[in-house]
Amino acid sequence: xxxxxxxxxxxxDLNSGVRGDCWVDLPDGGELASINPATSAPIARIALGGKSxxxxxxxxxxxxxxxxxxxxAPRRGEVVRQIGAALRAHKDDLAMLVTLEAGKxxxxxxxxxQEMIDMADFAVGLSRQLHGLTIASERPRHRMIEQWHPLGPxxxxxxxxxxxxxxxxxxxxxxxxxxxxxxxxxxxxxxxxIATQKIVDRVAESxxxxxxxxxxxxDVEHVGxxxxxxxRLPLISATGSCRMGRRVGEVVAQRLGRSLLxxxxxxxxxxxxxxxxxxxxxxxxxxxxxxxxxxxxxxxRLIAHESIxxxxxxxxxLAYQSLPIGDPRDDGVLVGPLINNRAVDAMQAALxxxxxQGGTLVTGGKTLARAGSFVAPAIVRARPEMPIVGVETFxxxxxxxxxxxxxxxxxxxxxxxxxxxxxxxxxDLREAERFLAADGSDCGLANVNVGTSGAEIGGAFxxxxxxxxxxxxxxxxxxxxxxxxxxxxxxxxxxxxxxxVRFDVL
Length: 506
Ligand code: NAD
Hints:
With 506 residues, the protein is an alpha/beta fold. It has two domains: 2-263 and 468-485, Aldehyde Dehydrogenase, Chain A, domain 1; 267-457, Aldehyde Dehydrogenase, Chain A, domain 2, CATH 3.40.309.10. Helix content is 37%, strand content 21%. The chain contains 14 helices and 23 strands. The strands form six sheets. It has a seven-stranded mixed beta sheet, sandwiched between helices. Strands 2-9-8-7-10-11 form a six-stranded mixed beta sheet, sandwiched between helices. It has a three-stranded mixed beta sheet with strand order 1-4-3, covered by helices on one side. Strand 10 (235-239), helix 9 (242-254) and strand 11 form a beta-alpha-beta unit. The chain starts with a helix and ends in a 16-residue tail after the last strand. Residues 157-162, 166, 184, 186-187, 220, 224-225, 228, 239-241, 244, 247-248, 262-265, 296, 392, 394, 420, 463, 467 line the site of nicotinamide-adenine-dinucleotide.
C-alpha cells in the first residue's frame, strides 16, 4: 500500500531533493533516509543539496522573478488557484504521506493539506486586493499614494511539525505578491516537500512559470546557512525553534535583510472558577495532547484557580490514561509518535529536571515498549518559578500551576520568554475583557473559551517576544512579502516644500 502511495506521489527509492529550473540528478550534499517515526523504518532516500545546489536554486528563483513580477497579480492568483485544485486532487495521498513521515494522525494529516488548500483560496482572493492608500497631501495640487511592489526571490525555511502547511502559508501569499520562492524544508520531512513540489511542478510547467517555486532539501551547514546569508534574498521567512531564530535573525540582520520569524511557543491556558469546566477540559486535552504535543501552539502550561485545580487534574489524569496511542494510520488513534528518538530523550530529560526542581509527575511520561518514538503524554504539578516551566520541550508535557487572584494568573501566564498562543476559560465578562486588554495576555494569539492550538488561516498568525514577532497567513500578513512605496505627484506649477520650508534661490 505504501509503495503504491509513494508511486502515485512520484516518490522513488532515491529522490533528488533539489529543484530549480529542473530536478538536479546528482546534487552534492550527500544522502538522507526519511524515517517513519511510528515504525523507525526508512520510507525512502533523498539526495540532498549542497552549497553549489542552493546557489543554483537561488539563481533559478532570481531569473524567474522579473517575468513573475510583471505578471498581473490576478493572473498570478490563477496559477495559485490551479495549485489549490491540484492539491484537492491529491489531498488523500499527500495527507497520508504527512501521516507516514511526520507521524500526524490521519485527521490531522488531512487537516494539514486542507490548510494548504484554504491558503490557496485565500491567496487567490488576495491577488485582487493588494491595495495601497491615498493619503491627504499637505501641499496644494499634490497627490500622495502608498503602493506595494513585489520584493524578489525569498527564502522559506520550515519546521517538521507543519511540513507542508507552513510552506503554503508563505509560498501562496508570496507568489500572488509577485515574489519567487526558495524552500528549505525540515530534514525530518523531506518527502512531503518533494511530493508537494512535484504537484506544483505540473501546474508551473503548464503555466510557463517554472522557477517561481523552488526547493532545496539539505542540512543547516550546506543549505540553511548559505540560504540565510544570501543577499539575493531580501526576505527570509523562517519557522522553527527560538534557537534557530536567534541565529537566522542575526545573520539576516547583519546583511540588513528582512526576516519573518515564527518561533517556539510556551503556551498557557487559565481556567477560572466561573469557567464551563467541560469545555475547558476538552480544550486542554486537544491543545496539550493533539499532535503529541508537537505544535508550536501546543498547551504547555495550565494555570488553574486553586479552588478547582485538584478536580481538574483528576479528570485530566483519567482522560490521559485512556488516550488511544498508536500508529497514526490506524482508525481511532489520537496520539501518534514523536518525530524521533531525540525528542523522546528530550522529554525524559525535561521530566527528570521537573521532578528535580520540585514538580510531581501525576501521570504518563513513559516511553512505550514498541518500535517507533512513542511516549505517554505527561501531566506534572509544578510551580511557576521552576526553570523548566519556562522552557519549550517539544513533547506532550503539561505543567499544571495554581493561582489565587486573576492578576496573579496573568502574571504567571506572561512570565515566560515566548509569546505565541494563550487562552482563558471563563464566563466572567470582566476577566475575558481584561485578558484581551493591553495589560492582559502578552501573546500574538489570545483566545477566550477556545484552546491554544488550532488557529484559522484568516487571521494573522504569529507571536511576540522570543516567538519572533512575525505574522503569516491571513489579515494583512501579505505586507511582509512586498515593499511599500510612498509616492507624491505634483500637478501644479509651483514647488511648495513640506513643513512650510522656504528655499527660494531662483
Ligand atoms: P528547528 O529549529 O530544529 O528547525 C526548523 C528549520 O530550521 C529546519 O528546516 C532546520 O533545518 C532549519 N534550521 C535550523 N537552524 C538553521 C540555521 N542556522 N540556518 C538555516 N536554517 C536552519 O525546529 P523543528 O524541530 O523543525 O520544529 C519545532 C520548533 O518549531 C518548535 O520550537 C516549534 O514551536 C517551532 N514552530 C513554530 C511555529 C510558529 O509558527 N511559531 C510553527 C511550527 C513550529
